[in-house]
Specification:
With 172 residues, this protein is mainly α. The chain is built from seven helices and two strands; from the N terminus they run H-H-H-H-H-H-H-E-E. It has helices at 5-24, 26-43, 53-74, 97-105, 108-119, 124-131, 135-156, and strands spanning 165-166, 169-170.
Length: 172
Amino acid sequence: MTAPFEALVARHGAAVLRVCRAVLGPDDADDAWSETFLAALGAYPGLPATANTEAWLVTIARRKAIDALRARGRRAVPAGDLPDAPSRIGVPDASDPDLWSAVAALPAKQRHAVAYRYLAGLPYAEIAGIVGGTTDAARRAAADGIRTLRRSYAASDQGHDLDLDLDGRSAR
């Protein structure tokens, strides 16, 4: 005849808690201990009378602790205070409004081809897949866009170097 479950908890509870604390640390050990005995309670009636109950409980505890570790790894980590300023990612040089107004004035296909080529660094074949048309048409749109930018940018500000350097990539 098997012992009552309460006797099993009293006899092996400390060993199960030590295993949970060793794997998880003191913060999550109590939850894993509870999970261990809840799982054991459901399986206890089918356990053979000759089974080593301490080893059985320690095995369950180890598995519950590993499950808790995996769950901890999936939880979101608080980021703290978020910055109030907008991100500068994707804005190579917003301090030159003439250049960006000239880019905005380009026809859509040229603007996209220039952005994808000189800001994102995509090859012309991929640009053609995005904007539609052939690789040669994408190359032509980017070249026409750069030519238009050189002209309009030169007309708006004679003091700038006309080698439009969009995000570190030379347009020549």
